[in-house]
Queue: 4 jobs
Job 1
Amino acid sequence: MKKHIFENMEEVELLKIVTEYFRSNIFENHKSSSIKTHSKLKSYKINPIVVKYLSKILEKDFTPIGIAKALYYPRVLGTSINTSFGTRIQNMFVALKLAEGSLIKGMDIEFIDKIDGRKKWCQLKSGPNTINSEDVSPLLKKFTTVTNLARTNSLAMNNSDLILGVLYGEESQLSQHYSKINQQFPVVIGKDF
């Protein structure tokens, strides 16, 4: 029972550290970058028809606030944070010493697994629907290339040492594309990861 409480205390402490890292290094950077990059009206190419339409959707009328939201929200909430999120999370793992950056092509991080004590090489993905059918073959090829290189160099590595780590979600939420990978290499998701 005491071990279970200790593990929960470690999890709570880690959650606090990760939350603070995310707030200061990801949220604050995104916020200041968004304000600096998108606060000047000159940088916008405005479609006068679409901006009126979007203003009416957002504010139920054509208003200055609706126009501002229609112009600003897509830039701040769009692809920029989604594109950089994976890299920022990878940097977080390394900065918090939860893992090391990997020098192996196709692997994002390396760490010692707390369950089996073996070194793991990991490709990171953010969520259970973040790959599509075209991503499966290249991912399997990367993993197979690393496995073959390990054999060539007489490294003690097996397929369970190469994992696809998914940051959030549950196993039942994984898309069918992940299940194809999981047939050869473990896909570890959410809390299990």
Note: Helices lie at 2-38, 48-59, 64-77, 79-95, 133-152, 176-182.
Job 2
Amino acid sequence: MSLIVFPAIDLKAGQVVRLAEGDMARATVYGDDPAAQATKFADAGAGHLHVVDLDGAFAGKSVNGDAVRQIVSAFPGHVQLGGGIRTPEAVAAWFDLGVARVVIGTAALENPDFVRDMARDYPGGIVVAVDARDGMVATKGWADVSTVSTTDLARRFEDAGVAAVLFTDVGRDGMLKGCNVEATVDLARAVDIPVIASGGVKGISDIHVLALHARDGVEGVITGRALYDGRLDLAAALSVAAAA
């Protein structure tokens, strides 16, 4: 079992950006053509892509829909999409468009039955986002912090048929501090659902270490800023992930 590397495209006002610790006021713009960026990732060998509608995460509904549609049209692989997807109609619309997986975050905490229903209706298509600040689940674009632990939230969906749990250490996201491998692996070992790591990837060493834990249930890793800043070469990351 090899680790899946998901290059990330985060969308804010139609542009490709990266945030620091989930703060919309601390956004770095990396381009104004999301579809072109998706094509670059595909040309480097990526078969999976992680897309986030940042504005949508705060608004609770799709805001960058046009950009997402352009990305899905341009990218030949699997697109995983999150950000403000909180209704059955929204989930259905994205799957109809060709998105491979839909990521549900805030609604997973506030309306777990919704996640269960969607996982039943779209087998293998629903990912639960478990975003953590100091071990507690953060919601609404990471603006709010709950009293529920990340492990407790993930365990609620072990029998729901979700495809994976996307675990993000918010305090590391976009900061190039290194992925929180320990917390990611601990979660993967604690639940019977594949876990995708996210937040803080700074270089090839993070990819290598996470790939060694594929047998523990770590399915993949999302990386953004390290790619855009040139600290991580995508082709090399894909090679290391496949070889471990």
Note: The CA atoms of residues 112 and 156 lie 8 Å apart.
Job 3
Amino acid sequence: MAAAAAAAASTPAAPQTVEVPAGPPAPQEKDVMERQIEMGGMGHEERTFTYNRIEADYSRQRGKNVGNYDAEGWVGGDRDKFWYKSEGEKNGPRTEQLEFQALYSRNVFTYFDVQGGVRYDVKPDSRGYAVFGIQGLSPYRLETQVHAFVGFKGDVSIRYKQSFDLLMTNRLIVAPTLETDFYLNDAPRRRVKSGFSVIETGVQTRYEFSRKFAPYVAIVYESKLGGTARLARLDGENAGGWALRTGIRAWF
């Protein structure tokens, strides 16, 4: 027993581990961590996605065949995107409107992006614009767009769009829509006066056979307003009215 006690006493005690609080990361490590958080998570890079949507419809108005299309899409991630937008209208044999936009989009709020870029109109006459605006999802799931167009020929306007989807069933969807243009100055060559120049509002009802394909019918009121409407009547044109449109909506 004495020998065992002596041996135990002669054995050195095991060193004790002392936990030291971790200090702040080195500057290089901190930069990497912040970059990873900005890109969507630790160790994950921002992924690139694409989206394209097109709507095309037909109506019969005042004895003429009228066709409309509205297309948009983007490529990018959650924070940065490149957007394209295009819309046009053909009234009988004449193309009355044809425009294209190319925009850089940056997410700045939870559901909103700021956008900037250019717009080019082929019809009713050739002209370009600088574009600035916001686009996103307002409270109550209202799809909202507000863009300012600064024309290279001097005209300045603001376009406001809003729509939202009401799900009647999982496939049947009713979508009220509103679009209007407000001109800050006259555009004589386009026969447009300052103020609200045009409005397009209505209700679209679509049936989604799949999420990516849906035929629809829409009751739409489209008309020129104010001084622009008066100029149209002086030119012998109809300022606008109601129309029943049938079309197809697809996205991919």
Note: The helical segments are 2-10, 27-38, 226-234.
Job 4
Amino acid sequence: MTRLRGGAVIAVVMIFAVTGCKDLQDKGSPGAPGTGGGGGAALTAADALTVKGRAPKTGYSREKFGSAWADTDSNSCDTRDDILKRDLKEVKFTDGDCKVSSGVLDPDPYSGKDVTYKRGRSLVDIDHLVALSDAWQTGAKYWDASKRIALANDPLNLLAVDASANRGKGDGDTATWLPPDKAYRCTYVAAQVAVKKKYGLWVTAAEKTAMKKVLATCPGQKLPAGGNPTKAPSRFKAH
């Protein structure tokens, strides 16, 4: 069942129907992973991804992708609050309509259970669907800082999820981790494919095999689109 959600992000995408898989919990916000058409079926896109071995993790740090939750879409709200506002229900704010103080993941896409968010507690994380360290090892280490900052703050690559499920994922790719809620796996993998395609990241042979195995169970799964540009504004820097 598709839930429509609102949020402050800059691209406009189309809502699509998912065949055989649960839709992303989205309020219709532009750039939400799992929403939108364009680009063809997810299975076709996965098959077209470049296959290479992982580059060394040497040199990776979070700081290579800029400061956390930079306001790259220039809407005066940081990226974390943008995603919380997009993905939570019953949202309440502190100081205006930017700083999210509470809300509910109804349900959490990874576990399927409801999770209450309250600011200052760690029950809800914002997951990078393609983990930054995975991106580093599959092409991002060779990018300029602007593109890495864009990836780290792109709504297409971000999702509010249960913290315990997210920490179980770590920096795993499709070959090593999938959401416990099996009904969500098609949507999840399609979103990862979309991010890797958009940013030109490659996949390992095992990762592509795992992606195609999941998506073969839902051949009608569309490829999400939208999100932010792949180049962050020049005022943002990374170390």
Note: The first strand starts at residue 89 and ends at 94.
